[in-house]
Structure formats: C-alpha cells, structure tokens
C-alpha cells in the first residue's frame, strides 16, 4: 500500500488547512495567507485556493482569483483589433500565487498556475483574459515561461487571453 497521496487544490477552509507554517520567503504573501485570505474569502473579495498533500493539512502553496477589468487601451493593438470597441473589458485577476520555500523546484508553481487557469476557463462569468501583477522580475520570468504576455508600458503586468487558455486545455 502506497502512502504517497497526490496533492490536491481546494478552496481555503480554515478548519481543515494549516497555514501557520507556510513560508514562501515573501513576507507580504506569507502574512496574507495567515491573516487575510480567509477574510477575503468570507467577504467575497477574492477566492483563495490552497495546495495540500493529504492526509497532511499543511498548505504547500496557494493562489487567489477575483474579477477585475482591464482598459482596452492597455492591451496590445494587435489583440484589441479583434475585440468589440468597449473601453473597459472583463478579466480575471490571478492576484497572488506562492509556493512554500521548502517545495520549490518540484513544479508546484506550475501545478497551481494550471489549476487557476483551468478554473478561470470553466467559470461562467465572462472574462477576456487572466491578468497577473508580477511582484518582481523572477515572477515575470515565471509567467512568461507559461506564455503570458506583457502589457505595453506595464512591464510587471501580464495577461493570457482566454482563447489561449482554451487551446492549452484543448
């Protein structure tokens, strides 16, 4: 009998998920998970999802999703020309994504990102793209490796069109 359980990603549940030992090395992200994520979920400001490896309940990584909008003028001209001429367009914000430092190098970030993109694609709410605000150049590189595109004039804001996400999951 194998004791190796597959990691699962679930909506944050403070009664089941232990956030106390989580440390990604970025204090604002660690603090957010420990003290604000559950409030954001309760207030419906953001939807936090956590990666755990059953039967353990320790959080290995997390991300948040929320609705946002993007100015059409912020998008690349080649992308906008195929869209309706609305000045503001609906999008989904991948607001935070972090992996516990002890889990780095195991593909956990990619697992979290793909789960987030799949949830966005399945959503019944209209969304043109998934948008991220990368914290630093390393985060920009992570998202670019996963085919996110930079917004002109905003080097740390990237997006992936829903059409690309749909192709990704075929």
From TrEMBL:
<keyword id="KW-0012">Acyltransferase</keyword>
<keyword id="KW-1277">Toxin-antitoxin system</keyword>
<dbReference type="InterPro" id="IPR016181">
    <property type="entry name" value="Acyl_CoA_acyltransferase"/>
</dbReference>
<keyword id="KW-0808">Transferase</keyword>
<dbReference type="InterPro" id="IPR000182">
    <property type="entry name" value="GNAT_dom"/>
</dbReference>
<protein>
    <submittedName>
        <fullName>GNAT family N-acetyltransferase</fullName>
    </submittedName>
</protein>
<feature type="domain" description="N-acetyltransferase">
    <location>
        <begin position="28"/>
        <end position="170"/>
    </location>
</feature>
<keyword id="KW-0678">Repressor</keyword>
<feature type="region of interest" description="Disordered">
    <location>
        <begin position="1"/>
        <end position="20"/>
    </location>
</feature>
<dbReference type="GO" id="GO:0016747">
    <property type="term" value="F:acyltransferase activity, transferring groups other than amino-acyl groups"/>
</dbReference>
<dbReference type="Pfam" id="PF13673">
    <property type="entry name" value="Acetyltransf_10"/>
</dbReference>
